[in-house]
Amino acid sequence: MLTEVHVPDGTAAVVGLMATGARVLAGGTSLMPSLNDHASPETELISLRRAGLGGIRVDGGVVRLGAAATLSRIERDARLAVLRPVVRSIASVPVRTLATAGGNLFARRPHGDLTVALVALDARVTLADSGGTHELPVEDLLAGTAPPALVTEIVFGLPAAGSFRYLKASRRRFNSASLVTVAATVTEVDGVVSAARVALGGVGPGVVRAVAVERALIGSPLDVPAVRRAAEAGLGEISPADDAYASAWYRARVFPVHLRRALLGH
């Protein structure tokens, strides 16, 4: 197998190389193992190391993550404390020094925990192609409705204090894939849930936006009975699979428990 690696300066050059069929290489934590097993054909790679996509900006409560920003850089940024438990639940320190925010969007099930959080935060991505740049929700990107393009940036608003919840259940505390991941942004007014966005990982072929869970929560106090009803509604939205980490039966069985722990803390 022969592999040629391009290291272009700027996104325009990256987009041009993508048009020839070359594959984007960011951190390489997912791509390189598949190349190194000698199962892939000859390929050309595009390194984003010099493309200028590794920055992080926070302005007026709006976060802009460069697609090539590493997970370790996000973890260390005090302005992104809301994402610290998310990032620390992913893989190991050596992996997080390489893995990127943009790469996590394309991680295969049951990985991609940062993406679960981004869906719960109503994040959007900026895409660049030969026609320019445009934005779309992360959900639409995951649905595969967008044409091939380069993800350059991830944009979301910082949630109100105490409104974001996150829990990842796994076999080991560190460096283990998700059994069930729950991320949620919940707004309460006068003790009643007025708005909710809930995203799940590990329980479907990709990230699941749990709309039925959200509907069951809105209009009720955030308490055990409400979360129990929401979990029952959510069972119709998940489609877990068997893998080396857990069976589909087990994931479905423990989903209500971990939804409760994520939303209520116990």
How would you characterize the overall build of this protein?
By secondary structure, the protein is an alpha+beta fold. It has three domains: 3-47, Uridine Diphospho-n-acetylenolpyruvylglucosamine Reductase, domain 2 (2-Layer Sandwich), CATH 3.30.43; 56-157, Uridine Diphospho-n-acetylenolpyruvylglucosamine Reductase, domain 3; 164-264, Enolase-like, domain 1 (2-Layer Sandwich). The chain is 31% helix and 27% strand. The protein has a five-stranded antiparallel beta sheet with strand order 4-5-8-6-7. A four-stranded antiparallel beta sheet has the order 9-10-11-12. A hairpin with a 6-residue loop joins β11 and β12. α9 runs antiparallel to α10 (224-234) and α10 (224-234) packs antiparallel against α11 (248-264). The termini are far apart. The mean pLDDT is 93.
